[in-house]
Amino acid sequence: MIIPGSEVRTLRCSRSGCLREPTWDVQWRNPKIHAPERVKVWLACDEHRDYFEAYLGQKGFPVSSIAREGSVE
Ligand SMILES: [Zn+2]
Fold first, then answer.
1. How confident is the model at residue 52 (pLDDT cuts 50, 70, 90)?
2. All residues at 6 or more sequence positions from 23 whose CB lies less than 8 Å from its CB, including other chains
3. Which residues surround ligand 1, an ion (CB under 5 A)?
């Protein structure tokens, strides 16, 4: 969801109140409401990756985290 011309440079961890730069894409979906190809992504810093995975995992949602290597494009 890059908006042309907006220069989105300051990505932040999706955890509310966290100002750290995200280093992980936490990809997940809700099988009950999302089609198989529909994947949601939360951005997570090192500290909150576990938090998101645990949170989603306990809901029974499939979740996988992808490292954001040199994230800015
Ligand atoms: Zn964080």
1. very high
2. 44, 45, 46, 49, 67, 68, 71
3. 13, 15, 18, 20, 45, 48
C-beta separation of 63 from 56 below 8 A? yes
Please report the DSSP string for 26-48 in residue order: EEE--TTTS-TT--EEEEE-HHH
Tell me the whole-structure pTM to 2 decimals: 0.78
Identify the residue whose tokens are 């306990």: 58
- Could you tell me the two tokens for 54? 């645990």
Residue range 6-23: mean pLDDT, rounded? 85
How much distance in Å is there from the Cα of 24 to the middle of ligand 1? 10
* Cα 41 to averaged position of ligand 1 atoms, centre (Å): 14
The residue extents of the domains of the chain are 24-67
